């Protein structure tokens, strides 16, 4: 009897195992499917990360090649970029002249001639002070040497003495050799400058003459209506911000130039008009312009006057006037909608100065304004959408 009970128990256990077998197989199958799905997800995530890394690497390589091209082609890109920026600044004036019935080609001739006339008047105004400064150069350097030597004598490791700044006798052959080297340097520097000036005026004239057709071509390159509307808004915003900013800034900075001329005259500085022009031009370069002007005024004042307090007075006065204008007058006139991040502007100035030198420093602010206008139009929501005619 006990043997029969044990056999029956084994039979029941086998039957139970056979009944549970399909369930166990199904669970194992589901587990294998889950493992396969997890492996597939991790594999896809790994491939997505690789795709993202490849995309960023491609963008980085493209930017490096673009920056290399911009640096290498600076002889052409500097005047062309400057012409486009100046042409967009004059866009509002060109539209007003067109409304008066003046043809576009004549508009371009008038505006480009006006730019050339302004440049000529500035050069003509500076010719006299520069010539006077050149005549006073020997006395200026002698006074500079006399004033700086007491300070330089304290640094014995510089090995600088008063004889360092005194020229020795020079023979005719040496003089001719040095003059030849000077002429070579001047000619090699002057030729690219003349070429860039010609490229600038030609590009400015052609850009102003074909501004509307170029604008239409850019807009029609987009296929959808929304993209064309965005292109219209971006072009209008860029022209508006450049035109309004530089028209207003020119008037404000002209006031700074006049104030600097008065400060230089009262402070006993030589050629006050030259200091005023430098103050006007340098004001268009944020941070670096006022810093350079203040340091130059401090050095010139110390050299000019025996009293160090009176010598530093023009630099302090200019810095105070410039800070008051930048922090009080400029925001009140321009409004907060044109406010740029100072750190971003500073980085832009450093970058474009490294790429294109002094002209790049002057173009840094216009290019920053263009980028700001594009970002505002593309990424700020709830803007009023203009309607295309028809």
TrEMBL record:
GO cellular component, one term: membrane
Protein's cellular compartments: Membrane
UniProt keywords, alphabetically: Membrane, Transmembrane, Transmembrane helix
A biological process term (GO) from this entry: transmembrane transport
Main location: membrane
InterPro entries tied to this protein: AI-2E-like
Topological relation to the membrane, as annotated: Multi-pass membrane protein
Location of region: Disordered: 1-27
Record's keyword annotation contains Transmembrane helix: yes
Chain segments annotated as transmembrane: 52-70, 76-93, 105-127, 193-214, 242-267, 273-301, 308-325, 345-375
Keyword check for Coiled coil: no
Pfam families according to UniProt: AI-2E_transport (PF01594)
Family: Belongs to the autoinducer-2 exporter (AI-2E) (TC 2.A.86) family.
PANTHER family linked to this entry: BLL1467 PROTEIN (PTHR21716:SF16), TRANSMEMBRANE PROTEIN (PTHR21716)
Protein name: Predicted PurR-regulated permease PerM
